[in-house]
Design brief:
The protein has 191 residues and is an alpha/beta fold. The protein has eight helices and five strands, in the order βαβαααβαβααβα. Bound molecules: adenosine monophosphate. The site of adenosine monophosphate (AMP) has 18 residues, from α2 and α3.
Length: 191
């Protein structure tokens, strides 16, 4: 039994927070490409330094780099029983690559949780974020918010072709309210 699930949604929708809670309670790995890039950068690896060129502008890191990093991450033991993908895929090519990576592992994508949040609320949350992320500057925030529509248009059609795969979640409630909904959905992949 393996549960591979994509958490999709605009920046600031809380998908990372929810993925982390699922990891803590249900033991699924959290594969956050943004976090992985930031970790590489903090360790000054060549991959991290290359990714930084794009991240600092709020641009997407090229598919080849991103997919290679996810491929490696999936080989770690904690990802063998399942994982939540948080911030991945963000392009059609990444979505296709994910299908292929899972196929190679003899696994399937169980679900795409689509966190719905109005753009004004995303902006408000990102502007108030206190983590001090280098890409949480107003001009970069605007770019990431605007780009999300393009990300959605390239990724979601891939998943809409599979009836029942996508589960919409209203991301406007409290963290705990949303977690109850998300947890119930994720559990259906573990049964
Ligand atoms: P996040 O923490 O998900 O907001 O990601 C921070 C930054 O990392 C993004 O603005 C991109 O520059 C880069 N990034 C994260 N995930 C991806 C991805 N799947 N594809 C390309 N770039 C990504």
């Amino acid at each position: 039994m393996s549960a591979y699930i994509v958490f999709f949604g605009p920046p600031g929708c809380g998908k990372g927070t929810q993925a982390s809670k699922i990891k803590d309670e249900l033991g699924l790995a959290q594969i956050s490409t943004g976090e992985l890039f930031r970790k590489h950068l903090s360790q000054q690896t060549p991959l991290g330094l290359e990714a930084q060129k794009y991240m600092s502008k709020g641009a997407l890191v090229p598919d080849e780099i991103t997919i290679g990093m996810v491929r490696e991450r999936l080989q770690e033991p904690d990802a063998h029983q399942g994982a939540i993908f948080d911030g991945f895929p963000r392009t059609g090519a990444q979505a296709q690559a994910l299908d292929q990576l899972l196929d190679e592992m003899g696994a399937d994508l169980c679900m795409v949780v689509d966190f719905k949040l109005p753009i004004e609320e995303s902006r408000r949350r990102l502007m108030g974020r206190q983590e001090g992320r280098a890409d949480d500057k107003p001009e970069v925030i605007e770019k990431r918010l605007n780009d999300h529509a393009a990300v959605e248009a390239s990724v979601m059609p891939h998943y809409r072709a599979r009836p029942g795969l996508i589960k919409d979640v209203d991301a406007r409630g409290t963290i705990d309210e949303i977690y109850q909904t998300v947890r119930a959905l994720v559990k259906t992949c573990l049964d």
